[in-house]
Amino acid sequence: MHISAECYPVAKVGGLGDVVGTIAKHQFKAKHNVSVVIPCYETKFIKEHEFETIHSSKVKLGHFNFPFSVRKGVNPDLGFDLFLIAIPELFDRSDIYGYKDDIERFMAFQIATLDWFVSQDSQFDIIHCHDHHTAIIPFMMQQAFNYETLKAIPSLLTVHNALYQGQFGFDKLHYFPNYDLSKTHQLEWGGCINSLAVGLKCARAITTVSPNYLNEINHIGYGLETLFNQSRYKSRGILNGIDNEVWNPKKDILITLNYNEDDFEFGKQKNKEKLCNLFNLNIEYPLISFVGRLYEEKGADLLAEIARKTIVRNNNKINILILGSGNKDIEESLNLVLNDCAGSYNVCIEFNEKLAHQIYAGSDFILMPSRIESCGLNQMYGYRYGTIPIVRRTGGLIDTVIDINEGGYGICHDQATVEDVCNAIQRAYELYQDKEKIKIIAKSGMMLNHSWENAYQEYLKMYNLIIK
Ligand code: GLC
User: Which atom of ligand 1 is nearest to the CA of 240?
Assistant: First the structure.
């Protein structure tokens, strides 16, 4: 049973959603009995599909009692069983995160999920939790009196992003169902209750979404370094894969023209034409795009200046396109660039899955100046669509992108600074002028295999190990 805040295509903000949806699909296909449980938000997918209520009750959170129900997808054709925990007062909202009561929302979600498991006498081989929103589950399963019957079930916590930890004060301790009070120290980290720390301490095993990220967080773990080090004996880095069915230029219905490794030049040109028309860009020049959440973590605060500098440096003979949403100041800074650089630059401030596919298909390069990237999926989507990644050497980007000068198919740089990123873009600009070379690089990237098969096998090994 996967427990998560996101699951593609039902509810997605970023890579967490993609990964949970893909793991579950692959495990199910391999004939495992796999389910996913997430909160019932007001997303488009949930509004447009049919669900039946299979359980109703109340969840107690401190002094509050929220009615909740469990809803099961009738026939959503996801490739796995999906359950939604509907707590209308807390989750009947269009966004997934970003509310003042996020702590209450995800605590109630975790408690309701376990209440439901217990009421059904559920038997699982593994409970697989993802990120801090579900990281208190292993503690509650072991220590809360109500969940005695779940105590022996092994739990795995996958860390997709250690920057977000779900901290809250001990004034909210009464949210917890009654538990063995001598175990309160397991909740504490840095003077408060830290959800991710609780998961690291209590889960039977831990995975990070790339091997290199696991090495990094032992040194740069956003305050959790010691804990990551102490948990090293039960941790493993498993590199994410991508869903080759959803991300497939040969069959993708969200792009203008399908293409493969042999006719990709023509195919990409047609897709680029579409993008350039849509965003008033010049098809003659290289198109470098950024897709993602607009946060400092992704280096998005640097993008406005990077765009201005690069465009001036190359006398407007380059295109920069940005798609994403997030931090309001960053969004504004990106909109401002439009005043000076229209014709070479454009930005679309929204979450738009369809446009993202078109951008991978129609761009020449995909830019990832991330400060932090536990795995990163965009570079792999880029490869698949013949779009060369330009990445900062960090986290999972180190595991997946090797520089052209070192025999790989991407462009790498070291610093998350405007200067360093602009220099990397300059290398991309020069590569673009060498038509033969860029063709070989793009084609070689398309032939790389980042499917889920490898990750699937690694997770299976991990599951078997902790079951034993
Ligand atoms: C988070 C990370 C990203 C990773 C994804 C899936 O979104 O920021 O690097 O690829 O989770 O694991």
Answer: 12
Note the pLDDT tens digit of each residue in 74-83: 876 898 999 9
Taking only the tens place, the pLDDT of each residue in 379-402 is 999 999 999 999 999 999 999 999
Could you read off the pLDDT of 314-345 as tens digits, one per residue? 999 999 999 999 999 999 999 999 999 999 99
Distance 131 CA to ligand 1 centre (A): 10
Query: In the predicted model, is pLDDT for residue 152 greater than 80?
Result: yes
* CB-ligand 1 contact for 375 (6 Å cutoff): yes
* Shared-domain flag, residues 187 and 53: yes
pLDDT at 348: 98
Judge whether 132 and 164 are in contact, CB under 8 Å. yes
Domain for residue 258, yes or no? Answer: no
Q: Are 251 and 258 in contact (CB under 8 A)?
A: yes
* 382: enclosing H helix or E strand: helix 378-384
Indicate whether 92 pLDDT > 90.
yes
**DSSP secondary structure, 329-356, as one string:** HHHHHHHHHHHHHBTTEEEEES--HHHH
Whether residue 237 sits in one domain with residue 337 = no
Claim to verify: residue 228 and residue 295 sit in the same structural domain: no
207 lies in the same domain as 355: no
User: Residue 312 Cα, ligand 1 centroid: separation in angstroms?
Assistant: 33
Residues 202, 186 contacting (CB under 8 angstroms): yes
Note whether residue 255 is domain-resident: no
Task: Judge if the beta carbon of residue 138 lies within 6 A of ligand 1.
Answer: no
- 119 pLDDT more than 80: yes
Residue 358 and residue 233 share a domain: no
- Distances in whole angstroms, Cα of residue 326 to Cα of each of 50, 95, 110, 158, 400: 30, 12, 26, 24, 26
Q: Which residue range is the domain that position 290 belongs to? A: 264-446
- Ligand 1 centroid from CA 154, angstroms: 24
User: Are both 463 and 407 inside the same structural domain?
Assistant: no
Give the count of domains, the chain. Answer: 2
**In a domain? residue 253:** no
Please report, for the domain that includes residue 309, its CATH number. Answer: 3.40.50.2000
177 domain-assigned: yes
Residues 181 and 317 in one domain: no
Contact of 141 with 155, CB cutoff 8 Å? yes
Give the global pTM: 0.95
Closest to 245 measured CA to CA, from 465, 451, 28: 451
Asked if 74 and 181 sit in the same domain, the reply is yes
pLDDT tops 90 at residue 122: no
Amino acid found at 143: Q
